[in-house]
Amino acid sequence: MEIKEHKHTREEKMAAFGRMLDVLDALREKCPWDRKQTNESLRPNTIEETYELCDALMKNDVQEVCKELGDVLLHVAFYARIGEEEQQFDIADVCNKLVDKLIFRHPHVYHPSQIGAPNPRPLPYGEQEEERQFSKVKNVEQVLDNWEQIKQKEKDGNKTVLAGVPASLPSLIKAYRIQDKARHVGFDWEDRGDVWAKVREEMGELEEVLRQEDTGRSEEELGDLLFSIINAARLYKLNPDNALEKTNQKFIRRFNYIEQNSIKQGRPLTEMTLEEMDALWNEAKAQERQSSVTNE
Question: How far, in Å, are 176, 192, 256 from residue 240 at the CA level?
Fold first, then answer.
């Protein structure tokens, strides 16, 4: 599939969205598989599709990103179609709720009167009402701080600071999100360099309970250490989930190199010594560095 270089017009975008809804309607009515799907049956597929999109994003594979975005969009439309069948909501309600929420959370861009407007109009640049709360923002950090405060003012918004963190998030991402939300209300290190004392403290506590062979406390202290490292990553504007995934991919590449060489030698991995595997690991590492230099 080729992605056209030219930009589509608004009319073409709307037509494409309508075409997608038309096809979904036809599948829902005429395909036995699509007809039997429910929110519960689709949920595992939605999770899988989301991870496939994340994989494509990590690889920076434009073609795959485009394809996987379509799969995720289909799921959004599918849930809206089910909601419409049950007379709960439809795709228009989904879009309108999203737009109204965005307008409400961006008072530095939109006047509150634009909530619910069919064609919301942003405020002219530099002409925000000075008396309106949150109207003046100068940088991304202020936008994010305001965002968290505004969310708690919404009629159906979060009742507590951490209520908006999904319980089913992967633990690493959840730790980052709850720390970040706490930061927006001032609960954070004054000097980010101070976090390293906490990391060292947690490392020492883990080593101590491991020496004592206290399994229960060891798991708890390991969690504390990981939490502190994620905290350090956040303070230095590093995404720990992306960082760990890049290391995962690096390990896979290098270990695959070891395995491929063992196959070439006609020897199973279990018969190779650790020193031999380490040597092949270093070969893979050197090749990656050389490839990186060549591509620069």
Answer: 8, 16, 24
| Tens-digit pLDDT profile for residues 152-191 | 566 565 678 888 788 888 899 999 999 998 988 889 999 9
Listed residue (93, 91, 113) closest to 103, CA to CA: 113
Residues counted in the chain: 296
DSSP 204: H
Do 180 and 233 form a contact (C-beta atoms < 8 A)?
no
By the 8 A CB rule, do 265 and 239 touch? Answer: no
- 26-71: per-residue pLDDT in tens? 999 999 999 999 999 999 899 999 999 999 998 889 999 999 999 9
Residue 196 and residue 232 in contact, taking contact as beta carbons nearer than 8 Å: yes
CA distance 269 to 186: 52
Would you state the structure tokens that stand for residue 187, as one six-digit string?
A: 């609960």
Q: Please name the amino acid found at residue 153.
A: K
- Which pTM was predicted? 0.65
Are 224 and 204 contacting, i.e. CB atoms less than 8 angstroms apart?
no
Alpha carbons 149 and 172: distance in angstroms, whole number: 24
Instruction: State the Cα–Cα distance between residues 105 and 147, nearest whole angstrom.
Output: 6
As given in the structure block, the two tokens for residue 76 are 């959004």
Structure tokens at 92: 């228009």
Could you give the residue ranges of the DSSP H alpha helices within the chain?
A: 10-30, 32-36, 39-59, 62-85, 91-104, 140-151, 171-183, 195-211, 215-235, 240-264, 274-295
